[in-house]
Design goal:
Layout: H1 7-37, H2 45-67, H3 73-90, H4 105-110, H5 112-126, H6 134-154
Length: 158
């Protein structure tokens, strides 16, 4: 008799399945940026791959956490917008996060997208070492671990 899949196995399989698409997306984006816009890649490809892997897993964990209890696709979509839109605004995607008042900076610096943006910029544009990115990698990893385990606690088979 087959053993049923556990919640942890199911959620982890979802996260790992996203890695297939990650490789295609990253290669396409970096290749396009380098060929069309001349964006340099001064850091190592292994380091860049680690940042992208941790970021994809962290955001996958956040997505799982948001979707863990929502009943409808529309509910998940609304919650994702509620979570992601502030990150897009504050994390330096469209304009520098340093433009916001200093009272908001601790929260902005704790956002996973801020850490990902800062790590990718430092690695690609400045060639920063992995040790120079330790605080950003710690923030990304913390979001990965906390969101995945929270999703694991909240997730229920329907």
């Amino acid at each position: 008799m087959a053993t049923p899949m556990s919640r942890a196995e199911y959620l982890l399989s979802f996260l790992l399945s996203r890695m297939f698409f990650l490789v295609i997306e990253v290669v396409t984006l970096l290749g396009f940026g380098a060929l069309v816009f001349g964006v340099p890649i001064r850091g190592s490809i292994a380091q860049l791959s680690l940042i992208c892997l941790l970021a994809a897993l962290a955001f996958g964990g956040i997505g799982l956490l948001i979707a863990a209890r929502a009943k409808t696709v529309e509910g998940v979509s609304g919650l994702m917008n509620f979570v992601m839109l502030p990150m897009w605004i504050f994390s330096g995607v469209f304009f520098a996060s340093s433009n916001f008042p200093s009272v908001f900076q601790p929260v902005i610096q704790a956002l996973p997208l801020t850490a990902v943006n800062d790590a990718l910029r430092a690695s690609m544009l400045e060639g920063a070492s992995i040790s120079a990115l330790s605080s950003e990698l710690a923030i990304i990893t913390a979001w990965l671990v906390l969101s995945f385990f929270a999703a694991l606690k909240l997730f229920r088979w329907r």
